[in-house]
Amino acid sequence: MKTKLTSIAIAGACLVMVAAEKSRLLLVLRGSLALALLALATSRVEAASFAGAQTGPTEWTYTLTYDPEDNYAVCPPPGNVATITLTGLAGVTSATAPTSTDIASATSDPSTIAFFNSVNLAWTAEVLNGGTEVRWTHFGPGTGNWPVTLHVFGFKVFTATPATNGLVDVATDGFSTDVSVTGPCPVQPADDRDFIGTTDGPVLPRSTLAALGPARTWLGLKNSDDVGTKFDLLAEVLVNGTVVSSNQLNNVPGGSSGFNNAVLRTINQSLVDAVAICHGDELGIRLSVRIAVGVTGHRNGTARLWFNDAVANSRFDATIDATPVSLYLLDGFVLGTSPGAGPKKTIDVTVDRLVGGNAFKSFGTWNITF
Questions:
Q1: For residue 286, what are the β-bridge partners?
Q2: What is d(CA 330, CA 14) in angstroms, rounded to the nearest whole number?
Q3: Spatial contact of 2 and 196, defined as CB atoms under 8 Å apart
Q4: Predicted pLDDT of residue 339
Q5: What's the pLDDT at 46?
Q6: Measuring CA to CA, how many Å separate 365 from each of 238, 285, 306, 346, 361?
Q7: Which candidate, 181, 197, 156, places its Cα nearest to that of 47?
Q8: Beta strands 175-176; 71-72: pairing state
Q9: Angle at 342 between CA 340 and CA 343, to 5 degrees
Q10: What pLDDT was estimated at residue 6?
Q11: 3-state secondary structure of 83
Q12: Is the whole model's pTM more than 0.90, yes or no?
């Protein structure tokens, strides 16, 4: 049974491991998660782990730890293969097998030491999927069922140029207690010692959404019959679809028809905490409207949002890392760092105080991918 270590995502962005040890040691828990957590508080848990750290600008080094009685690849084919896989990497160009063990701490017999090393250093490394994955493979059983914790040192991955250190995923397949004699094969959940978790590795650089400025939107009306209609406006900033900031501007008239009668409305935004943004994440803004609440006047009307050129330059401001940027609404529901080339675009939304509880209705969501 594979047990995944607890982790959280900041607004769906970079994973942050929740761990009791600063070394990010990846404990693999036996049995159900609830029983394992109880066992951690009361007794020693048999587990394996694979933990690493950056050991040079282009180098990461890992250690495989066996707890007592851990083994791998103990069953007949296809159960005679074990793998350790890192995913979520970036820019890996090569990987190497481990270089040493600490078997000499458990025995002084030269032949035993030589045999243990010959078996436990026999991992084959391969780089997969354009440098985003590394897999080490071992054929045949390995650890020797020692009653003490032992280590295999020196698994390495390399990048061609200096890279950012971050959290990557690690998973194994084929780890278990030794059921080659006692059975049953294939390995049953009670004997499984496979693990999944996170450790250090080379990743793409991460940015930080440090602050937000106001959203500025050009609001008008579809036609002049709605002149005098007042609206509430809602602006929501999202990271990977999760709202990280939300604010309203209430009780504002819509101007009139035609861009010359539209009004630039400002909806302030702020962040409670900075948000990590990783490669592939989306930053977006969703704009919505409803009939103004608690005021007399038109019960319905059609609001018009203008955008996509240097004059109809609806946008919002943000600070990414230490750099202030303006992100403009462009045609195709994308955000850009400069105003659209035109022509002006519009989106109309009809709202009615007596329909659907006067809920906000969206003009749309605009995104930019990092």
A1: 236, 365
A2: 27
A3: yes
A4: 97
A5: 53
A6: 9, 6, 14, 14, 12
A7: 197
A8: antiparallel
A9: 150
A10: 28
A11: strand
A12: no
State the Cα–Cα distance between residues 111 and 122, nearest whole angstrom: 17
63 and 51 in contact (C-beta within 8 Å)?
Answer: yes
**Cross-strand pairs, 230:** 253
**Residue 42: helix, strand or coil by DSSP?**
helix
DSSP character string of 275-304: EEE-TT-EEEEEEEEEEPTT--S-SEEEEE
* CB-based contacts of 69, cutoff 8 Å, min separation 6: 46, 145, 146, 147, 177, 178
Q: Which tokens in the block code for residue 356?
A: 């659907």
Q: Are 237 and 307 in contact (CB under 8 A)?
A: no
How crowded is residue 144: how many other Cβ atoms within 10 Å of its Cβ? Answer: 17
For the chain of 370 residues, list the mean pLDDT of each consecutive stretch of 10: 33 32 30 30 57 98 92 90 96 98 95 93 97 96 85 97 93 90 85 92 91 97 95 97 97 96 97 88 97 92 98 97 96 97 98 97 96
Instruction: State the distance between the two ends of the chain, measured CA to CA, in whole angstroms.
Output: 36
